[in-house]
Known about the structure:
This is YgjP-like metallopeptidase domain-containing protein. The chain is α+β, with helices and mostly antiparallel strands. It has helices at 26-56, 95-107, 116-125, 129-139, and strands at 8-13, 16-21, 65-68, 76-78, 83-86. The strands form two sheets. A three-stranded mixed β-sheet has the order 3-5-4, covered by helices on one side. A two-stranded antiparallel ribbon has the order 1-2. Helix 1 crosses helix 2 and helix 2 (95-107) crosses helix 4 (129-139).
Amino acid sequence: MSGSAPAGRVLLKNGYFYVNTTDFASGHIAKLMDEWYRERAAHYFAKVFAECWEKFKKNGFSKPVIKIMTMKKRWGSLSPNGTLTLNPALIKTPKACIEYVVMHELCHLQHHHHGPEFYQLLDRSLPDWMKRKHKLEMALA
């Protein structure tokens, strides 16, 4: 494997990260950690999305496709073509916060703005959304 970076492995055990690699450059370790979080995010976000979709699908919309992408200023977004993009950093927050972001974005299927109708739908879909939003804002403050 000439030209490729040394492999590595990340384990989380008893609340501690263990990084097994022969390349101790901070960039390589950061890449391993990023990959670890992305893998966990992909699996967990799919599970949370499925739970949220069960509650939301009665509204008659096509099920969005999930994409994970680092975004500097957003937790999530919904594209006009129905792609729900989630920031992998969201995996570091409580499940209630992830559910809030997913439900917020699902509400954009019906209302593509943040007007009163959007918030009425969000209130019906996730009555404690304000509490969850506040928790999200505090989680990474």
